[in-house]
Amino acid sequence: MHYDMKLVVSDIDDTLLPKGGVISQGTRRAVAECRRRGIVFSLASGRWFPSAVTVAETLGVNGPLIVANGGCVMTVDGEVLKEFPMREKDVESAYAIVKDCGALITSYVRGAIYRLNTWTMDNRPPEKLSYFGGDVFDVVDDDPARFQQEALEGVYKMEVYSNDTALLAELREKLVKAGLSVSSSFKTNIEITSPGLGKGQAVAWLARYLGIGREQVMCFGDNTNDASMLRAAGVGVAMGNAVAELKAQANLVAPPCAEDGLARLLRDCVFDEEA
User: Fold this and answer.
1) Same domain? 72 vs 118
2) How many domains does the chain have?
3) Within 10 Å of residue 57's Cβ, how many Cβ atoms?
4) Following DSSP, what letter does each residue of the chain receive, concatenated?
5) Counting beta carbons within 10 angstroms of the beta carbon of residue 231, is it exposed (0 to 12), middle (13 to 18) or buried (19 or more)?
6) pLDDT tens for each residue of 121-170
7) Is the domain of 131 the same as that of 165?
């Protein structure tokens, strides 16, 4: 079946970028073919801008970036187009629940990430150097006073990272009971936003901003933090390696990321090219 798309939005990790971090030549060609055909190709990631833009520049992405799990939409040049911060009361509720959990806690705000308990994980999320962006972006580690003063206003999302899956499940239950939206991008984390926020709202805004109808939007993802953007798209695509919950909501299931799934689906269903 052929799909006439004008906007393609992809998650990064385990969707566009397989484990090991090497973007395939097939993916590079697919993004280039989108550009050639006038299709906007954008990224939507839980990553923060300096990390996401590295992938965008490598691929020659021609569309804005949705970062911090839908908390902010930015150009590849770093201009903020739209922000979707958590409600203040939701930030207060989330912090009250997670602050004494003993796991790695992060808060994303404009221009910075604040982290507490960074020593708790050997495989903690991207190291500080991968997040630096000159004087505009910063990472503030293990400073409770600054976290209290600076990390609880204008929050795009909060996270907890832990190898203790029981702890994450317990926190998830408490957060959901408190009325917060909780998803995951990896099995070792939970991502917290206000209800209604996330990648889906950002994708819907981006489509309107570009003057593109929902029916001409295709989104690719692999985990529960991608669910809202698959629902926001005319065609939502789960990767073959995606969690079962996401596959159940998708219109299509692509081959796994490690098998060039995104490029293969675009080739077969959007470009109508033979292998």
Assistant:
1) no
2) 2
3) 10
4) -----SEEEE-SBTTTB-TTS---HHHHHHHHHHHHTT-EEEEE-SS-HHHHHHHHHHHT--S-EEEGGGTEEE-TT--EEEE-PPPHHHHHHHHHHHTTS-SEEEEEETTEEEEE-GGG-TT-SS-GGGT-BTBS-EEEES-HHHHHHHSSSS-SEEEEE-S-HHHHHHHHHHHHHTT-EEE-SSTTEEEEE-TT-SHHHHHHHHHHHHT--GGGEEEEESSGGGHHHHHHSSEEEE-TTS-HHHHHH-SEEPPPGGGTHHHHHHHHHTS----
5) middle
6) 765 555 454 444 444 568 888 999 999 999 999 999 999 999 999 999 99
7) yes
Backbone angles phi and psi of 149, in degrees to 5: -85, -35
Identify whether residues 171 and 186 lie together within a single domain: yes
Full-model pTM: 0.86
Could you give the CA distance from residue 46 to residue 67 in angstroms, rounded to a whole number?
6
Say yes or no: 92 and 79 in one domain: no
Instruction: Give residue 187's pLDDT.
Output: 85
Residues 80 and 207 in one domain: yes
Last residue within a domain, chosen from 126, 161, 193:
193
**At 26, which CATH number?**
3.40.50.1000
Query: Is 274 inside a domain boundary?
Result: no
Gap between the Cα atoms of 162 and 189, Å rounded = 6
How does pLDDT run across 22-76, given as a tens digit for each residue? 889 999 999 999 999 999 999 999 888 888 898 999 999 989 999 999 999 999 9
- Domain's final residue, options 193, 228, 254: 193
Can you give the residue range of the structural domain that contains 244? 7-84+198-269
Q: Which two tokens stand for residue 235?
A: 């065609």
